[in-house]
Amino acid sequence: MKGPFGVQINDSVYANEGDLGHNEFLEAFIEFIESKGWQFGGGTAQIDASGERADDCD
């Protein structure tokens, strides 16, 4: 096997209280990724409680 190797994420993130806006999450996520010297390539979308795509709430 040859690298580089990475991690694929297929899941959902929710706030403990209230809504988690798409832009709010993405800004914090990218800040975390960049603070580690990593890169993110992929897509994100706002979803509702049942996991269905929804209009961005922020």
What is the helix content?
10-25%
Spell the H/E element sequence: H
Number of helical regions: 1
Beta-sheet strand percentage?
A: under 5%
Separation of the first and last Cα atoms:
42 Å
Q: Structural class per helix/strand content?
A: mainly alpha
> How many whole angstroms does the radius of gyration measure?
14 Å
How would you describe the shape?
A: globular
Count the E strands.
0
Notes on the structure:
Helix content is 24%, strand content 0%. The radius of gyration is 14 Å and the shape is globular. The protein has 1 helix and no strands. It has 58 residues and is mostly helical.
SSE inventory with pairings:
Elements: H1 22-35
Task: Briefly say what this structure is.
By secondary structure, the protein is mainly alpha-helical. About 25% of the residues lie in helices and about 0% in strands.
Provide keyphrases for this structure.
24% helix; globular
